[in-house]
User: What shape does this take?
Amino acid sequence: MNPRTPCLIGIAQRTIREQPGPEPLDLWESVAREAAADARLPVERLDSIQLVWTDSWQYDEPVGRLAERLGATPRHRVYSKVGGTAPHLLIGAAAASIAAGELDCALIAGAEALATRRAYRKAGEHVPWSHAADPKPPYGWERPPHPSALAHGLFLPVHTYPIMETARRAAAGLTIEEEMRERARIMAPMTEVAAANPHAWRRTARTAGELGDRFVGWPYTSDMVAVLEVDQAAAVILAGSELADRLGVPQDQRVYLRGWAYAEDTWEVATRPELGSSPAMALAAEAAFERAGLGLDDMNALDVYSCFAIALRQACDAIGLDPMDPRGLTVTGGLPYAGGPASDYVLHSTATMAGLLRAQSGHGLVTGVGMHLTKHTYAVWSSEPGGRLGDAAPVHVGKEVPLVEACAGAGVVAGYTVAHGRDGAAEKGFLVVDVDGGRGYAVVEEAGLLAEAEERELVGQRVRLVSDGKVNVATW
Assistant: This one.
């Protein structure tokens, strides 16, 4: 074996349920030390420290503060941008650097303490955490939302993802009731996986009939979307095979990244040619499997990113996976049940998959999704070395439908959702509409129309649009 062959040799996960819990820096330190101990690596020996962006707190020098805590002086330091694919991008880059001889080991860690922030907020107290950035840095977008999306108030995933769900529902010829029943049937088994996962945030197995709490972004209910307010952390350590040998890491503790790939659909939801499907997912999966020298049928376990059901469904459509495949769709329980710690989840799914492959050997697929179903990563892990890594260059970049900001006159609904407040009441409708010259956003404000939108299929409905030049309002 090439002495530079990268392998995953250390894993750690933590879930804190007592409130208030520790701050992200404490969690980073905890999982870093645990992963290093698992890898038999002196923590001060870390060559690279890489952290996933934390939504919980903005530190002045996140990586530097952790390095100081660990007594490490890494020559390579990275703090990521926001997005569910960030862990995969860090892991892939670290593996490539190790294979090229530029690094010999790397820690990738992430932590969120959003449940603790909520506990302090409910108590009317300020969060007493350390090393606050001053001034506070800009939010870690790779790209900020489009001005038209901001003008319409359409920038939260809990509203953009259900728009794509309704588009897929209509394209598949499902009724509203059929889509909801199918979704519950797909997600109920995930609760059973979470119930058996000691690191899961929600550890209660539920039947399909028990899934259906209050609506948040119709047709999604609060118990079928990623649970963000968690206190969770995870870390992995990668190293070259030569270093793993010197550390005395047993062969059955090493897990290899056989191949991975990255692809993009369009950044704006409205500019996606087909709202309900993802060519980028299909091409990312194809490239990852080809690089790994393996196929879907070779996978012993799967973890498909599950922030919202449409992410699961588009992935299953893209790779030809039955949502009820006996292997299951997740090894953790997924983001709605195991926990969806902002940009960190893929570290948890990767650590869990690595633990599984250590225990039973074989191959596993871990996927990631970033932004509004925009960014896609597919990674094939294995107890056996082989394949070729690939790199972060996108294997596909989606072509955009023109975005029309001011829409007046006639339009046709391509996808939609109804936003609900914490009291469960419908507040506003969000539409993506086909218009002359492209696509645009619109809102629905009349209570009667909001109720109608939830009672019958609105995709394909002709609407009347009026605009003040920034915000388009739809009626029918």
